[in-house]
User: Fold this.
Amino acid sequence: MEQFIYLDHAATTAARKEVVEAMLPYFTNQFGNPSSVYGFAAKNKIEIQKARETIADSLGAKKEEIYFTAGGTEADNWALKSIAEMYCTKGNHIITTKIEHHAILHTCEYLEKQGVAVTYLNVDENGLIDLEELRAAIRPTTILISVMFANNEIGTIEPIKEIGEIAKEKGILFHTDAVQAYGQIPIQVDEMHIDLLSASGHKLNGPKGIGFLYVRNGVKIGPLIHGGAQERRRRAGTENVSGIIGFGKAVELAMADMEARSRKVQSVRDAAIERILKEIPYVRLNGDRKRRLPNNINISIQFIEGESLLIMLDMKGICASSGSACTSGSLDPSHVLLAIGLPHEIAHGSLRMTLGEENTKEEMDFVVDSIKEIVEKLRAMSPLYDDFVKQNGRNV
Assistant:
């Protein structure tokens, strides 16, 4: 392996140097429990509040509306389960989409077993929901709409502000899983009428094991964990002080350079997409071309298996994925790609590359060259491709 090119930033990111430096004292010299009353420990409570305020400011929220969790999956679970419980006297219907992260979909499946009705909205070929279908799905018993901000596989950004307006108009709570979008694109909870929002630290160069749930003041949310007064008695347990401090620092850094970083990454991404679509036949770009996270490339390549492509890329030192890291090892094709209308055989040949600020055009040129070479090899061994060539009566 001559080099290492990491293109799986949607799965996780490396913590920035400044983040690690900010965290280190809380493992050693500043190890106090924030719930203790003496000054040595109370300082940590103050630092937690500073991190909470940094995160709140990034969303246009209030610091008391931010609840720290162990990550995005926990925040998603908490939001859906708690709203279903706390608003059960008002109704028992939730609306979501067919392309949500499994933290949402599996939670909805659990809630259905508890008697909650769930509507799963369709998406178009680019992964966008139809706002009229959303309106038509609303019932008198609808208590929550949960639509992800941007899809973790194909990068499509949903019309969040418009969804929020519909929810507000109908008096329905609106939750969004913003795990992929937070720190990548601007989010303002008041402007977008968002009532609950989930995010995770390790997606934006922060530490793993820390996330948050934003809950608008006035929204009723029950305790996730009982046992103590932490997080305003809603999530008991000693705070992950180092994680919270690191998350706060990561957010501070991400917000400071978000616009310039997004432009840089998008430029490298677009050049790679252009080459792929121009130079490799029978390739499809998945997701909306314009309403898209700046770092996302998701393609489906006909007549190959995505797993073989990933293994051969790995042998060249290139780290990519076929979809969500949470479904790694599954033999089933991506539920997202099936939802946008791809047949199984094409969905199985998918490749997701999610770039970071450190990825260069030169690296991506090497990656595209490698994909071209590998696809040629795999297609040369494919009886399906051979039959296709024979049926078309020409070389392709």
